[in-house]
Amino acid sequence: MDEIDYRDRGVWPIGPDGSGATLAKLDKDTASGDPGSWRASAEVGGTPGGPNFPEAAGPVPETVVLPIAANWRYNESGVALAADWASSAHAVGSGGWQEGPALLGFETSPAELPEPLRTSFADPVENEIVTYYFETDFELSGAEVANLD
Questions:
Q1: Domain range for 85
Q2: For tag attachment on the chain, is the N or C end more exposed, with fewer CB atoms within 10 Å?
Q3: Is 86 part of a structural domain of the chain?
C-alpha cells in the first residue's frame, strides 16, 4: 500500500487539474512522493487495473505526408477572409495568394529552427498583420491512411 499527498500547484503536473484526466504514476517502481514521478493520464478517467502508460507494441512507422520543404500557398495580405475560406483552393496571384517553400514565417532567431526559413515574412508587429492563411495539397493512398492510425 502506498500513500501520497499531492497538490495542484507548484511542481506537480497541472494537466489533471480539472481536465478529466487523472494523475498517473509514470513508473510503479519510482517514489510516490516525487512530483516528477507523475503525469496526466493519457486516458480520461485513468486506466484502473491496467498500466498507466502502456509500452508501444513496436516501433511506430514514420509516414511522411509532405516533405518539409514542400510548397505552400499563403495569404499575408492582412485582410480577414470569409469563414469558409478553407473550403476551396486558392490560385496563386489572385486575392493576395502567393506561393513559397516551407518553412514559412517570421522568426527573430532562425538559427534555432530545425530547417532553414525558406519563405520569410515581414515582421507582423510592424505590418500589423494578425492572421496569415496557409494551404497546400497532398495525396495519400488508402494504405498510407491506414498507417496513420
A1: 71-147
A2: N
A3: yes
